[in-house]
Design brief:
Layout lengths: L6 E8 L2 H11 L3 E8 L2 E10 L8 E6 L12 E9 L2 H14 L7 E3 L2 E7 L5 E6 L22 E8 L3 H9 L5 E7 L5 E6 L8 E6 L13 E8 L2 H13 L8 E2 L3 E7 L5 E9 L24 H6 L6
Parallel strand pairs: 1-4, 5-8, 9-12, 13-16
Antiparallel strand pairs: 1-13, 2-3, 3-4, 5-9, 6-7, 7-8, 10-11, 11-12, 14-15, 15-16
Bound molecules: zinc ion.
Length: 316
């Protein structure tokens, strides 16, 4: 069976859709490639930020759920989410931009052989920019406020903190086909294990963080909801679904998200995983030059457009 191609998208939670749009487009310079609603809760926006083309592996998406509690990371959660940039000069450029824009950030550090810069959005969403060594990927967006050479090129990886680290490791290394690339000690005496999948390198990394002590996570505003892994087509997805089921986990049926097809399952450590197809992509219902400009609804929600629009807060 074909290996996962890396990360497809990460979906996080905001309680402030207008502020979220401002941060990810005006400050981070990503492109809003799709403005739609959560298909299971049409009162909530689902905002997708990505490269100019909305390429698989570049999207960071948000559900707008103001009623959720403030997120607390810990066991059973994903944080931080790492985004790729082109190299050390870009990290320096971003360090200056974060200082200029009042963005909470740390210092440039190095782990597992890569330079990285930790930062947070205005709701405490934990993020990192990681030097991708200039690997190809990510189409620069001409209308971004960020110069093309420094733009976010897509996802680099995610850090998982499992409630059952041994079982999560068994799943990742076993059925899911991840490989170890390194590890480092955490200040509290725990360990971070670095893994990659499929082609390896930028966009394929999962860090399994095993702190000496972890409090239970509480999912909400400023946290991550799930991470999705890439498969090229529906056939590969069906094969993976069968495999996940065969090891005793409980994948959902294939759900048509219109822009891609999804299968979800909860891994043994409490984190929600998704397997998503690369296609058909965000140009399925609007031309590439107009991506994200209007509220896009999948055909089955189109008859309810008026009611759905009336239930959404204006973004600007
Ligand atoms: Zn998803």
């Amino acid at each position: 069976m074909e290996a996962f191609g890396g990360l497809h998208h990460v979906t996080a939670i905001t309680g402030d859709a207008p502020g979220n749009l401002h941060f990810y487009t005006d400050v981070l310079g990503m492109r809003l490639v799709k403005k739609t609603v959560n298909q299971d809760d049409v009162s909530a926006y689902h905002l997708f930020y990505a490269d100019a083309k909305g390429s698989p592996g570049t999207d960071l998406t948000f559900f707008d759920w103001p009623e959720t509690p403030t997120n607390r990371s810990g066991a059973g959660s994903i944080a931080p989410t790492a985004l790729r940039v082109a190299g050390p000069p870009s990290l320096e450029w971003w360090l200056a931009r974060f200082a200029d824009r009042g963005v909470q950030h740390g210092d440039i550090g190095e782990r597992n052989g890569r330079a990285f810069l930790p930062f947070e959005d205005a709701e405490g969403q934990r993020l990192e920019l990681v030097d991708d060594g200039g690997a190809p990927g990510g189409a620069p967006w001409a209308k971004s406020p960020v110069p093309g050479e420094h733009q976010v090129k897509g996802l680099h990886g995610v850090t998982l903190t499992s409630r059952r680290p041994r079982e999560t490791a068994d799943l990742l290394f076993g059925a899911m086909g991840f490989r170890a690339t390194g590890e480092r000690d955490l200040p509290d005496g725990g360990t971070e294990h670095f893994l990659e999948v499929g082609p390896g390198g930028p966009g394929t990394e999962v860090v399994l963080s095993v702190p000496a002590q972890a409090i239970a996570a509480l999912q909400g505003r400023g946290g991550v909801h799930h991470v999705a892994f890439r498969v090229p087509d529906a056939e590969t997805q069906a094969a993976w679904r069968e495999k996940i089921e065969s090891i005793g986990l409980r994948p959902t049926p294939v759900i048509d998200r219109f822009y891609f097809k999804s299968v979800y399952f909860r891994e043994p450590g409490g984190i929600l995983f998704e397997i998503a197809t690369d296609g058909p992509g965000f140009s399925a219902d609007e031309p590439e030059e107009k991506l994200g400009e209007n509220l896009a609804l999948p055909p089955f929600l189109e008859p309810d457009r008026e009611r759905i629009e009336a239930g959404l807060v204006p973004l600007a």
